[in-house]
Specification:
Largest sheet: none
Distance between the termini: 42 Å
Helix content: over 70%
Order of helices and strands: HHHHHH
Length: 147
Amino acid sequence: MRLLSAATAIAAAVVLAACSAEDTPSEEDVRSSADVAVTSVQDQAEGAASSVQSIASSAADRAGDIFDEAKIDVFVAAFRAGFPSLSADRETQSIEAIVSETCPLIDGDASDREVNAKVAEVAANGSTVPDEDQAARIAQLVRVACG
């Protein structure tokens, strides 16, 4: 809307300048004024497009962050429900660390054995350590949270 208003104002100025009773502008002056008007409208349009792209990119980043946080929250809830002895008296941040410390291995194409070993290490709760089967199941939950 602002773009249309600006274009209309510039066009009106060009027409008024061309119709002045005192001076009869040359065809070159009219063209020059029109070129300035077109350039101004183009600059405004590019600025508006840039602003829209910036806002859209920012919104997409925030949506991605919210989605990632939701996956972590689901992991924590599933971990607490599925492994009560490993989650007993444990802070949420400590459980989230299972994901944050294991995802880099998964992203780096580590073997299942390496991933499961890392999960077993980070999921341990004091002297309570997950067995191989538990570590593998937790690793599957981590893979979902990393994806």
